[in-house]
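STRUCTURE:
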């Protein structure tokens, strides 16, 4: 049985969780344990109370850090709905675009980079509701910018954008992460570390 529970509610339930044998966490946000946000350290504190648990983490680098901190962690890359998210083979009116949240303090580095790109390169930032609106919005973008600086792993939007036929311009999360994800710069993805690299690539 699988339960989808937000971490901020889950972290208070360690007494209940301690009654579950063979407990496994499928965690897309464990990177927050290692960055300067309000959840920093909280993932490890929960896992320490449940030392028999296993964690399936979606970032390779994050997984290695969890293992180093004594967690039974295993790397499982992010997935997406490949039956729904697809290339509609239609015209694309947005040359350079981003779809996603900009109002969460977790994404402060992302937001700073987004605004710089928008000012210098004419990036269009938007938000789309899940389902059909999101599918259509992705299919309207030619070059999708993934500006996840400070995160340390690739967010699911990278793979969703690629599935919908966008050329992915992604903030470079490092050689090990790229190798595990199969990302090859200027082959199946365009990687950048700063606005200068992005401008040269674009």
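SEQUENCE:
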């Amino acid at each position: 049985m699988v339960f989808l529970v937000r971490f901020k509610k889950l972290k208070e339930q360690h007494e209940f969780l301690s009654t579950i044998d063979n407990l496994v966490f499928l965690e897309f946000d464990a990177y927050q344990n290692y960055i300067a946000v309000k959840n920093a350290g909280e993932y490890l504190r929960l896992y320490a109370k449940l030392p028999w648990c296993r964690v399936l983490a979606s970032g390779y680098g994050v997984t290695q850090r969890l293992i180093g901190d004594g967690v039974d962690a295993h790397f499982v890359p992010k997935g997406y709905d490949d039956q729904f998210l697809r290339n509609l083979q239609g015209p694309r009116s947005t040359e350079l675009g981003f779809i996603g949240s900009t109002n969460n303090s977790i994404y402060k580095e992302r937001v700073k980079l987004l605004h710089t790109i928008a000012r210098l390169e004419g990036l269009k930032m938007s938000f789309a509701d899940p389902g059909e609106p999101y599918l259509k919005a992705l299919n309207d973008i030619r070059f999708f910018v993934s500006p996840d600086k400070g995160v340390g792993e690739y967010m699911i939007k990278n793979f969703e954008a690629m599935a919908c036929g966008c050329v992915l311009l992604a903030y470079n999360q490092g050689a090990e992460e790229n190798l595990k994800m199969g990302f090859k710069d200027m082959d199946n993805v365009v990687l950048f570390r700063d606005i200068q690299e992005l401008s040269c690539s674009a």
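REMARK: The chain has two domains: 7-75, 94-201.
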